[in-house]
Amino acid sequence: MIERDLFEQYRLNNSGVIKYRNFQAFNENGDLYVIVPIPQIEREELLELKQMSDYLQFQKEDRMAHFVPTIKQELIGYINGESIALFKLPNINRRRHVSDGEDLARFHNLGRYYPYRPQTATRLGQWKTMWENRLDQLEEWWGRRIQELPKNRFEKLFFETFPYYLGLSENGIQYVADCMWEDTSKEAQIGTICYVKHKPQTDMESVIFPTDLIFDHPTRDLAEWIRHKYIAGVEMKEVNRFLGQYERLMPLSAVSYRLLFGRLLFPLSYFEAVEGYYSASSEKRKTRYENQFFRVLEQAEGYEQFLRTFSKKFVGASSRNLQIPVIEWLQSIKA
What we know:
By secondary structure, the protein is an alpha+beta fold. It folds into 2 domains: 2-95, Phosphorylase Kinase, domain 1, CATH 3.30.200.20; 127-190 and 217-332, Aminoglycoside phosphotransferase (APH), C-terminal lobe (Aminoglycoside 3'-phosphotransferase, Chain: A, domain 2, Alpha-Beta Complex). The chain has 12 helices and 8 strands. The chain has helices spanning 2-10, 43-58, 100-111, 127-147, 153-182, 219-231, 236-247, 254-265, 268-279, 283-298, 300-315, 328-332, and strands at 18-20, 23-28, 31-37, 66-68, 77-79, 82-88, 192-195, 213-216. Strands 1, 2, 3, 4, 5 and 6 form a 6-stranded antiparallel beta sheet that branches. Helix 6 (219-231) crosses helix 8 and helix 9 (268-279) runs antiparallel to helix 10.
């Protein structure tokens, strides 16, 4: 079925499907092609993602995968009736010898000169609204649990823990809202090309798919790198080192630090686990999100300590005299 669809739409004869990351892939004439499902990406957004990826390629970002259009010059193809994008991976012959912080700063520095303002492939200035919508969804699911007996350990813990994460979410939303309101210079509206979900690179030759991209404030990627590292169990000194490396090229202002802390304050990992569990299409995926949920709860106290340490070092008034507001309840909790 895959072979027929690929030939009919792309005139490609794959020599057998293999795995690349979590995607199906195949080799053709020495090139590696990767099939990326795009069930929730519309044509307009895909065109904007192509524009961003074309721009980065023009700026010599050699890790970008290349869109492969269909024989009808469409960006969207169909495999087994599901919409996909097909990418040809680049040949990367040189290794990078830079740190995560330097590499991300260089990437953001390229993206901040992007000449077009995306209309759909953007989250710039939208955090508050999007978080509120996600919070409403979780609150609706939680309300249903009140009416029913918990069916398993996951639902029991979701019922018990949601009020805490509701409060934490509202804190994050309000913190970002206050920052946006008080940002008279409109610095929070200055975006760059970011990753949808950035995490530390173990291989600096790692390919970037256009579907990995989104236009947003650079602190999006900083926060997700730090969140990922915290889950992996790193110490605060590694976070400090990462931010120091980043700021050598892209210094952070008071507004940026506020947005960074606000994004860390919002319990995104909790949301992803619950949303993934209730939308999982298989028991295997449901179990994966269930385990992720349990890890989030196990780390809750430690993450609160991490936020407290982070805020004292970077959000306190003594930090560069930035005069960034603190979260009073977070500071009052005993370590």
